[in-house]
Amino acid sequence: MGRKKTAFCVFYFCPLLCFFDSIPTVTGTDRGVVVTVKNDPANPQINLRAGPGTEYDKVGTMVINQQAVAKGKTEGGNWLLIEYSGGPGGYAWVYASYVDYLGDLPIVTIPNTPTPRTTNTIDPTLAAQFIITVEPSRLATFTQPAPLSIPTFQTDPGVAINSTIPMGLVISACLILGLIIGI
Question: Any idea what the CATH number is for the domain that residue 88 is in?
Fold first, then answer.
């Protein structure tokens, strides 16, 4: 029974194949310029931003070898606009040094810089409590010191020094005498 079905299929369908020039195949559409995150261990994942700059909100991340379709670049070429479903309008911005891409990209207009959510302000009543008024004082002044007088000792010519007995002999005699008396 199996041979009959095979012969039937070959007999009836082979002539139909002759009418077609080629077998249709499924092909993908051209995605355009594709960016790929560089293999850099220092940056295993990169941030995606709502605009071209770090002052814009972070809307997502990409990891090493992850790909996305690029739609444009900034005027200097430092930031690339990519398709990203998590970003505003389905797009996000990536810093060009962190990705590889081949092809030319059009220059696109960049979004406005975001307004900060809060503005740092100082409560004036609180700040007034810490204002300290420093009263001026007299500055230190330089006072001249008294003149330096160096005393000098002069020998009196009227006093005669007995130089017949050496002083070393007198000291040695006193030392011996003290040892004898002390024993």
Answer: 2.30.30.40
